[in-house]
Amino acid sequence: MADDATMPQQFRNQRSDEFVSTYANNVFFEQTVWDLKIIFGELDQSEGVVDQHTGVTVPWTIAKLTLYYLATQIAGHEIVNGKIPLPQVILPPEPPPLTDEQKLDANLVKIYAEFRRLHAEFMKDV
User: pLDDT for 61-82, tens place per residue?
Assistant: First the structure.
């Protein structure tokens, strides 16, 4: 396996014969220590359910890079087109307080603090 210094920096994109383009208005996440599965779906209002149709599993390195690239896409779009409106009904709720038992776990306390920080940062831009 080549080290990072010998890896090519640019690749040409090519779509496989199996490439599929689809629509999703719902995203769900499943995680493991190794990777993140992003499950896409579409709300069927007549049935009151989300029809999950596609799952893509990526390693955490790609998930973190995707976070950056999504942020750049949204920033550019909003500079050109204005803020993306988010109806109140779909805004993420504030993380619920930790239970006394959860407060004993130092990692959960750190995660909770980070979730609250991210929520506050997101909500100030809405």
Answer: 999 999 999 999 999 999 999 9
What span, in angstroms and rounded, lies between the C-alpha atoms of 98 and 113? 10
Q: Look up the domain containing 37 and give its range.
A: 22-84
- Structural domain count, the chain: 2
Q: Looking at the domain assignment, is residue 45 inside a domain? A: yes
pTM across the whole model = 0.80
Q: Indicate the residue type of 112.
A: Y
pLDDT the model gives residue 82: 96
Q: Rounded CA gap, 126 and 93, in Å?
A: 13
Residue 118 backbone zone (phi > 0: left; psi -120 to 50: alpha; other: beta): alpha
Write b or e for each residue in 64-87: b if 16 or more Cβ atoms lie within 10 A of its Cβ, otherwise e: eeeeeeeeeeeeeeeeeeeeeeee
